[in-house]
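lol forgot to send this yesterday, sorry. struct tokens for the thing we talked abt
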């Protein structure tokens, strides 16, 4: 669920920075492909892919924010939610790595469809299990992680192939707007539905709506053409890059791990803390609405104004401020302080995320050889994030096994929230470099 949100935001960051994934091989693009449409226009296949991604984002936004809340209400256990999230992350990373061979050598589109179908099966399982879902958090977490892995791996690769340098920015912009729009509106609608019905009826309604939306996304995906497979998947190609000191991937990987440590806890705990502080799903929906709205405006402004030559300084300000905005929670963990913290995070997050994402994908598209290994490098990037998320989740489980007081949660947020500062340190050499590009 949150993985989808992160990926959509990455598309938006790319659009704001004018990021180009150059070096796409010519085997999937005819020489005159760009001549068949107006410069910068999106063809029908790109529009269809946007439609699938948009529906996937809507379905995730409707229910994803509230799944941890639902599990907590039925179990009253912070440990149980931690185990659910841990297995979700772990299986997502494993799926990325294993499915990479299938996506590269065989059928990308079936991987995309399997991801959509498994997401639908996940919510169908929650509907079927009802209040007993908390007894099956491990298989549910594995199922959701597998769905995310199949979908986002295929989506990232198909996106790379289906666009060209002159229309990627437009695609990224539409993907970011669709995802952000879903993040602003859908959680608010879900919160309103949940509080409008007694018991868990509202949850059943939003989970059912998500299931229907996933089904629609699966149907639309069949109008996407089968993509040509090419090349042989090298299982350990990405990891071999980490052994070479003359390549930047070792530092970049460490920075991704640091980023993942924060994400692993923040992606689910903040929303859960908002619900626990208010005992009201509608206020959680309002929280998501305001923070997403501020985030959208901030990403647009920073992405438009940020120059490559000041990436290092901007990222340092970003990582410092997203850590400092946690401090108000030491006064009180109530809705007002959580909202200040959430808005502050949304305001300064682009200063960290835009340089981070741009620099990593600049590196993937730096040469023709690395572009050919795009599947392997996309997997490597995800493995770094997953490793960080698992470290963050391990810290969460350790703390929750001893105490679940608001003060302990705040210290945990601060502890993992400062980790992006380490990510900034590891990215110092890579930031500011203009990656070499090649024409497809």
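and heres what i got for the seq, position by position
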């Amino acid at each position: 669920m949150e993985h989808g949100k992160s990926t959509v935001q990455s598309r938006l960051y790319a659009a704001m920075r004018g990021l180009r994934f150059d070096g796409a091989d010519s085997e999937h693009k005819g020489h005159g492909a760009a001549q068949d449409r107006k410069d910068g226009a999106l063809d029908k296949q790109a529009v269809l892919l946007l439609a699938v991604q948009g529906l996937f984002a809507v379905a995730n936004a409707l229910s994803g924010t509230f799944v941890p809340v639902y599990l907590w209400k039925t179990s009253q256990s912070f440990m149980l939610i931690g185990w659910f999230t841990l297995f979700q992350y772990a299986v997502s990373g494993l799926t990325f790595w294993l499915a990479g061979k299938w996506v590269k050598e065989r059928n990308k589109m079936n991987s995309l469809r399997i991801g959509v179908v498994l997401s639908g099966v996940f919510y169908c399982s929650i509907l079927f299990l009802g209040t007993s879902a908390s007894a099956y958090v491990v298989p549910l977490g594995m199922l959701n992680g597998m769905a995310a892995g199949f979908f986002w791996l295929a989506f990232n690769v198909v996106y790379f192939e289906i666009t060209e340098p002159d229309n990627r920015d437009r695609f990224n912009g539409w993907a970011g707007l669709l995802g952000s729009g879903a993040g602003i509106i859908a959680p608010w609608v879900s919160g309103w539905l949940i509080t409008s019905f007694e018991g868990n009826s509202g949850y059943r309604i939003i989970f059912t709506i998500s299931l229907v939306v996933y089904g629609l996304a699966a149907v639309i995906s069949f109008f996407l053409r089968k993509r040509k497979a090419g090349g042989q998947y090298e299982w350990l190609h990405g990891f071999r890059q980490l052994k070479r000191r003359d390549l930047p991937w070792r530092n970049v990987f460490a920075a991704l791990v640091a980023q993942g440590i924060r994400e692993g806890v923040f992606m689910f705990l903040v929303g859960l803390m908002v619900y626990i502080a208010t005992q009201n799903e509608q206020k959680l929906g309002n929280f998501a609405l305001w923070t997403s709205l501020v985030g959208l405006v901030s990403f647009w402004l920073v992405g438009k104004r940020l120059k490559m030559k000041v990436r290092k300084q901007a990222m340092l300000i970003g990582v410092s401020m997203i850590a400092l905005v946690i401090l108000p929670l030491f006064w009180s963990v109530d809705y007002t302080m959580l909202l200040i913290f959430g808005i502050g995070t949304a305001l300064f997050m682009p200063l960290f995320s835009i340089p981070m994402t741009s620099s990593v994908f600049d590196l993937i598209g730096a040469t023709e050889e690395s572009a050919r290994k795009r599947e392997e490098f996309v997997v490597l990037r995800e493995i770094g994030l997953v490793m960080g998320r698992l470290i963050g989740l391990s810290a969460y489980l350790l703390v929750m096994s001893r105490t679940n007081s608001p003060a302990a949660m705040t210290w945990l947020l601060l502890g993992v929230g400062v980790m992006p500062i380490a990510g900034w340190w590891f990215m110092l050499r890579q930031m500011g470099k203009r990656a070499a590009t090649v024409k497809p």
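The chain has one domain: 2-23+40-227+236-426. anyway ping me if u want another try
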